[in-house]
Structures are given as structure tokens and as C-alpha cells.
């Protein structure tokens, strides 16, 4: 390829997800501080979504069920942004932020989170708008591709298209055990 025919890759102006490190327990405060700075500094065209990865958790206290939010990644906030010098400066210098994950320091900008990883996190929180098309259905035999049950096979007993999670019956210690697995972590076993 000659210099003129090489495609120009300039992803500095692309919207990507980054992981911001915070003090543990300060994730929501950092999220609020970042949102205020976006509004006050007029960088809405560079900073888009700020997400603390939480999901509801049921806790039983004094015999009563209490729903509270459980932080999936303590000490981290996910930020969708265009990595301009201004946006990078604003996020780094927000109170409670200790840095970006994937930055080697010395003024080096961080690496973005892979689209598959962030999609998995957003889907778990119910914030994903991408739907996975699968080739299996209830009753089919599937192989689990990742996680603690990686390599095991089981039968699909139910599917939730909203959360994109299937309930898989696997044989564990000689007993049939139901396990919830994300669609993208399953593969239909060919007959």
C-alpha cells in the first residue's frame, strides 16, 4: 500500500468507554462530580454516559427483605467519552478520581475498554440496547464458553430475551443443577 491508499485511522475522535479508578465507596460521588463538571464546563460533546456498575441485591434484615444496590466493580466508574485533551484533563482532575485504568502514566492516555466487555457489563445492568441473536432454543443442548462452568454442557430450560440470560441445566456432582448464563457465553451443540 502506498501512503495515499492507506486508510487513515484516527480514533481519537471516536466515542469509547474507559475505566476510571476512584476511592472505594466514592463511585456515586465521583459520578455526580463528573456530571456537574460536564454541565459546568460545557464538554457535553466529549463526555456522554457515566456509569457505576450496580445491580439490585436482596438482603434480609430482622426478617424483612431489603433491596439495596450492589456495586459490581468497587473503586471503578465507567465513562463513555471522546478522549480529547480537555475531556481527559477534566476527568483526571475530578475530586475522587485517582486515575484511569490502562494508562501507563507519564502523560500517556489510557486504552479503552473492549466493546464486548462493556456490552456484557451494560447488559448485566439492563442498560444495553444490543440484542444477541442466538441459534438455540429451550430444550437444546448447549456448551458453556466462559466462566466457572466453561466447557460444560447442559440443556436450555428457559430463556429471558430481556436480560439475554438462559437457564441451563448442567450435571454437577451427579445432580442436575440450574445455572443462569449470558447468551453470548453459550454455543449450541451440533447433533
What are the secondary-structure elements, in order, as H or E? Answer: EHEEEEHEHEEEEE
> Approximately what portion of the residues adopt beta-strand conformation?
35-45%
Low-confidence stretches: 1-10
Which word captures the global form? elongated
- Fraction of residues in helix: 10-25%
Helical segment tally?
A: 3
CATH architecture field of the largest domain: 2-Layer Sandwich
Question: In the CATH scheme, what's the topology name of the largest domain?
Answer: Alpha-Beta Plaits
Radius of gyration: 21 Å
Major sheet characteristics: 5 strands, antiparallel
Mean pLDDT: 84
Strands across the major sheet, in which order? 10-9-8-7-11
Look at the helices and sheets and give the structural class: alpha+beta
CATH class wording of the largest domain: Alpha Beta
CATH superfamily membership of the largest domain: NusG, N-terminal domain
Q: Could you give the count of β-strands?
A: 11
User: What separation lies between the terminal Cα atoms?
Assistant: 45 Å
Count of structural domains: 2
